[in-house]
Amino acid sequence: MTTFAIVDLETTGNASPKGDRIIEIGIVLMNEAGSVIREFSSLIYPERDIPPFITSLTGIDEEDVMDAPLFSEIAGDIHPLFKDAYIVAHNIEFDLGFLNDELQRCGFPRLHNPIIDTVELARIMLPTSSAFKLGHLAEKLDMGHDRPHRALSDAQVTADLLQYLLKQMQALPERTLSQLLKIEGKLKSDLRTFIESAVEEARYRTQNDTDIEILYGIAVRSRRPDEVRSASSSIFPPFEQWNKEVYEGENGLKSMVPEYEIRKGQQEMTSHVHKALEENRHAVIEAGAGTGKSAAYLLPAVYHAVKNDERILITTHTNSLQKQLLEEEIPKIERMFPRPIRAVLYKGKGHYISLIHFQYELERSYQDNYDTALTKAMLLVWLTKTRTGDIDEVQLPSNGRQFWHKVSAEQSSKTEQLGYTDDSFFQWALRRAEEADIIITNHALFCLDIIKEETSLPSYDRAVVDEAHHLEAVAGRYFGLRMNYRDLQRYLTQTTELAQKSLYKGWPVPQSFYSHLNKLQKAVDEAKEELSQFSRYIYQHVKKQRNSSRGRSDVGRTQMTLEKERSASFMQSAKEMSNRFLSAVFVITEQMTSMQNELQILLTLKEDHGIPILLSRIHTQKDVCLDIRHQLIDYFDSQDEESVRWIEIEGEGAANSIYLYSEPLNTPGILKERLFNQKKSVVLTSATLTTGDSFKYIRDSLGLGDEPDVIETSIPSPYPFHEQVQLLVPDDFPDIKNDPDTFIEALSEAIYSTAHVTNGRMMVLFTSYDMLRRTYSLLKEFIDPEEFMIFAQGISSGSRDRLKKNFQAFDQAILLGTSSFWEGVDIPGDDLSCLMMVRLPFAPPDQPVQKSIDQRLKQEGKNAFMEKSLPQAIIRFKQGFGRLIRSSSDRGVVIVCDQRLMEAKYGKYFLSSLPDIPVVYDSTKKLMDRIENWL
Length: 935
Hints:
Keywords: ATP-binding, Exonuclease, Helicase, Hydrolase, Nuclease, Nucleotide-binding. The chain has four domains: 3-170, Ribonuclease H-like superfamily/Ribonuclease H (Nucleotidyltransferase, domain 5); 239-345 and 669-715, 3-Layer(aba) Sandwich (Rossmann fold); 481-664, no CATH class; 721-934, Rossmann fold (3-Layer(aba) Sandwich). It is 46% helix and 14% strand.
């Protein structure tokens, strides 16, 4: 019977070659039936200091290991435990690397047993897990993990995890297992024996997999039959009667929501949304935190959709809200309706897998690298579970996106003309969306649909825009241009893949076809070289500019706005270099056209499903090249006075890491023309839409302007803010303009002092990336990581969500963030007790779009500060404030280290935009005492 030796180590660091050593070892010997044969555990004297961070993580300090044996003293007991066993660890390269280095140091042979990495196996068997750390998986799978980061406890949990994952493997369909066998050789773990055993079991299972079907040779989860949309409208009571029953009746929300309380504001919002939809009017509705905004607009939207047999679109900014609407809110309100609600989450083609293209890639698994093999294995298992085929469900490995572009539905743009139908997930999502009552999408696809001639969404006449304060910024991005060196290089690399002769092996293509492949490869090489020179030239030019003409983005990139007069000679030179790059791109498109023509002829002579696959990929890649040509020519030739163009470079990055941007200055005008003038009813809602009790700013910035007959209402939050939060402003901070260094020192001291009082659990919001970076450096000098963990956006690795999760994982942590942390980051409950705003959130005046809009407003004789800068800052201030209080039980303090809030004339506008809360203006020392007493 197979034996597993499951091992876990605690060490002084993560680099054995640099002298890090083992401080604890835990080993569990287990047989295939799951019975534990033996356990071994020991602390180890590491012959070097244990860093404070390791002590904080593991609880093991110098005193604990003082009397522990050296590794050499127990090596003789450890080595025999691995005889004839599979070595298993959670991240095997780390544990086995350390173990072998120590064994070798003691004169024992290195271990070369078959291995299983439970991180890798978990990625394959649980591809939709949001994280693969041992603690996260133990919690998700409800496995007791009493002493995380202690070796024996971690080894025991790893043993439980291994058993669970092998059972998951045994439950897979035979087809999936057989395809995994073809990939297994490229993985780290030695899984062949276990997969073969599972194949045998699957063959002789008595019951069939009723929830599995085979499509294009791949086992996928059976899809529910599409409901046919009923032509007749449903019978409903009048809306007022129905609304009252929903909110106040015994069979309404009261019967479904535990501890339900009637919220008048929620009921009022439902009536306003219904009125807008019914009377073909636009609406702007601000609904404070705790209103129950999602249900308040879903109820009338579904009522209208079901009653009138009409689809309604709902768009949000964040994926988390889309998921919440579909999985929590809609099931909650469904019983209020006479039939099930047909609601779908709809995304662009690039989100969905094409089964035909995936099958094509599975047939070519012999040439995979590790990341591709792992990605394929994850997708094979995921397809047996997913209902949507949406890749956002999967946590792809680092280079998995490179493989994904080959198998996404974007590759199937011309399938029907090529003689086959890719009837998989995108087509299914489209059919469901066309039959839906409610389509949920994101602002990005919503804006793409508005701006493009070809529609990206099924048609709709009425829409609800949640998180509407984001719409202007997202629209600006999608109505403009975004292009960077890294993406362009990636597109060229993808084109190179089509020039590989091995793809066309065995087909009777003429010799001229191989000539086109050679010319294509040569053109791609030339394009890459020209792109590098073009990018380096731009990078060096931006870097040489005097500071007065440069700005900084919120992630620290250097920015340079392109101004017609000042940038003329640079633009001319950049345009010439761009044209050399585009000449090579033109040759690429010509060669791909010739390849298409010859493959089309071959398609009439030979039946081979690989031909239309490659034809569709060539077509897709050619379209990308044509888009690049069109966009770059337009970028350097454009005489458009209605847009702003700028360049960003990574200050510390490679000498060609450039980003080209443009945005229209008239985003409101485009939204008015393409959205509000075209649709019967658009409802804009958010918790932050007013400034000074007025909707003027948001209406002007989103294109509604002075349009008559727009419904406006502001519904206050039901939370008792005066009991939940205090706003504190220190009156003794140095003047930032006269002495920025002393200001940063005072800020760092205040952060440290506050963290002591609040036990960490604080978020610090900056308006300047440079100030964040300098504050972080100073804090790292005098804060011991054993005391507080510090995470900083743009410095600590990981996305915004990853930083948030890391922050929540530590009891005493401080999170530093810039502009994107001002909104959309929810840290409810005790995880966040203090929010510190370093400065009032005015957009930096040197930001390209802000600067251009300010100049335009001044030319029109308007006050740019009062018209744009101030209301924009107030909305961001309200958003930042909203990070702290996310439920009726949250409590905390907001500290604003900017005396302008109390002393500048415009400070009152910020204060009046907040709920009625205590505001205290005093010395930092007294504020600290107040926080301690209050919390």
